[in-house]
């Protein structure tokens, strides 16, 4: 997993990577562990990577859409 090259995204990726979330499938795993619950996933992402509510919601929606399409 790599984010779009932007200074803010690079910092988010570094924070996630430091905590062991170095691949998209690892973040997907956390999404599934949290039972695809929007509130829990967004709070986890904000606490873990320091993202904004807006970015947490975008990430949730991306994971949710992917799961709807492929699981």
Commentary on this structure:
The protein is mainly α and 71 residues long. It is 73% helix and 0% strand. The chain has a single domain, classed as Barrier-to-autointegration factor, BAF (DNA polymerase, domain 1). Residues 1-5 have low confidence and may be disordered.
- How large is the radius of gyration? 11 Å
Number of helices: 4
The fraction of residues in strands falls at: under 5%
Unreliable stretches covering 5 or more consecutive residues: 1-5
GO cellular component, one term: condensed chromosome
GO molecular function, one term: DNA binding
GO biological process, one term: chromosome organization
InterPro entries: BAF (IPR051387), BAF_prot (IPR004122)
Summarize the structure.
The protein is mostly helical and 71 residues long.
Fold topology:
Layout lengths: L6 H12 L5 H10 L4 H12 L3 H18 L1
Helix pairs in contact: 3-4
Describe the structure using short key phrases.
71 residues; DNA polymerase, domain 1; mainly alpha; 4 helices; BAF
